[in-house]
Amino acid sequence: MLKIDPARLLKDLRHLRAFGANGPGVVRLSLSSVDMDARRWLAGRMNEAGLTATIDGVGTVFGRSRNAGPALLIGSHTDTQPTGGWLDGALGVIYGLEIARALAECEETRHFAVDVASWIDEEGTFSGFLGSRSFVGENVDGIVRGARDREGMLLADALQRAGLAGTPRVRVDETRHKAYLEPHIEQGGRLEAHGKSIGVVTTIVGIREMKLCFTGQRNHAGTTPMSIRRDAGAALVSFIARMDEAFRDIADADTVWTVGRIELDPGSFSVVPGKADMYLQFRDASAARLHAMDAALAALIRDFNAEGGVSVAMTDSEPPEAPVVMDAALQAHLADAAEALASGQWERMPSGASHDAQVIAHHVPACMLFVPSIGGVSHDFIEDTAEAHIVLGCEVAARAAATILRSLQA
User: Fold this and answer.
1) Three-class SS string for 319-378?
2) Residue 345, class by beta-carbon neighbours within 10 Å (0-12 exposed, 13-18 middle, 19+ buried)?
3) This model's pTM is above 0.85
4) CB under 8 Å, gap of 24 or more: what pairs does 132-136 form?
5) Could you tell me where the DSSP H helices lie in 190-327?
6) How far apart are CA 233 and CA 223, in angstroms?
7) Is 56 helix (H, G, I), strand (E, B) or coil?
8) Where are the beta strands (DSSP E) in 99-237?
9) Which sequence spans correspond to the domains of the chain?
10) Closest CA to 95 of 402, 407, 395
11) Chain centroid to CA 309
């Protein structure tokens, strides 16, 4: 009978946590010395589990089953944010390791092939999703040559320092890799608020990011009457209020938008701002809703400029990301496993965060499973998940992995 080892699972998660530990959290930036120590440890654990592990030319740790395919690939990332939590990404990687061991220890499933990956730089120390993008065959050579971290180190130099320069890069084998599973913490509060233990992800949301630049006229804050001011800062604030109203008319319960940064020029108490910039992001699982928000924003800008006084112009900060739908058949395997082990304690839901699964899904059918985040907190040192939910999530993922592999072999 297929059975994971909860003590072994938790021990490995805690051991990984020790690499870069900072209070309850972790600082383990991609290709740092502590990150490479963690990767070498992980490769060792994969080898002990009967996988053939390598660290490839961009830093991805890849454990290949010695069994013939078809294979289920399970993965996530072990790099963190500068103020990272101990489970973000790491949970999915250690789930993959434990599931590979559990399948190998069960007579009925020991012939199944599970490959396990810890993708490099999901968090974007140099360039987001570097490992998964390289894996699916995207040309990342320009990124390797030109990307820098926030201290200015070139990615190429970091790879050289890590001893990876010139090392071959692992690539997807579409004759072998027939499905991809990425378990993850939710990084939000929906499951906890609903009293659920498992989330089956339907879609990874699409994202729009843009910069809006307001141009008015600098002037003296004491001598310029309010009636004749062309205050770019005040215009920006009023625009946000209109935008909020317009977006609320379009949004559903999962639609989100954020003004993440505002800059005023010159930023002085005594000067009416002549320029003001805002950095806007919005996310939704529906491509149609994203298009409607795009259209609403364009109409607001058009109307605002027609009023005169302060003008506004918009540029994209990043190329638009479309929503990525998870494979329906794989979702069904996760749902069946969740119902069998946690009847009534699971729900379908979108992922509001981005994940390597959205890259891999364009090449291999993909699915995701969530476990609750305590207080909905992630990307912070206090990020946590109850041990019972960690164990249950792995049990659900292992059961689903077995049924996925049976269906692939059939």
Assistant:
1) EEECCEECCHHHHHHHHHHHHHHCCCCEEEEEECCCCCHHHHCCCCCEEEEEECCHHHCC
2) middle
3) yes
4) 132/356, 132/359, 132/360, 133/359, 134/56, 134/57, 134/58, 134/60, 134/169, 134/170, 135/60, 135/169, 135/170, 135/171, 135/172, 135/360, 136/172, 136/359, 136/360, 136/362, 136/363
5) 190-194, 232-250, 287-306
6) 17
7) coil
8) 113-119, 177-185, 198-204, 206-215, 219-220
9) 6-205+323-409, 206-321
10) 395
11) 41
For β-strands 61-65 and 113-119, DSSP reports them as: antiparallel
Q: CATH code for 206-321?
A: 3.30.70.360
User: Collapsing DSSP states into helix, strand and coil, what is residue 390?
Assistant: helix
269-301: pLDDT as tens digits: 999 999 999 999 999 999 999 999 999 999 999
In angstroms, what CA-CA distances link 198 with 83, 255, 342, 395?
26, 21, 8, 11
3-class secondary structure per residue, 70-105: CEEEEEEECCCCCCECCCCCHHHHHHHHHHHHHHHH
Q: Which two tokens stand for residue 253?
A: 């319960």
The residue type of 150 is R
**C-alpha–C-alpha distance, residues 253 and 251, integer Å:** 7
Using an 8 Å Cβ cutoff, are 147 and 154 in contact? yes
CATH architecture of 6-205+323-409: 3-Layer(aba) Sandwich (3.40)
The type of residue at 42 is L
Does residue 93 contact residue 42 with C-beta atoms inside 8 Å? Answer: yes
Model pLDDT for residues 334-364, shown as the tens digit of each residue: 999 999 999 999 999 999 999 999 999 999 9
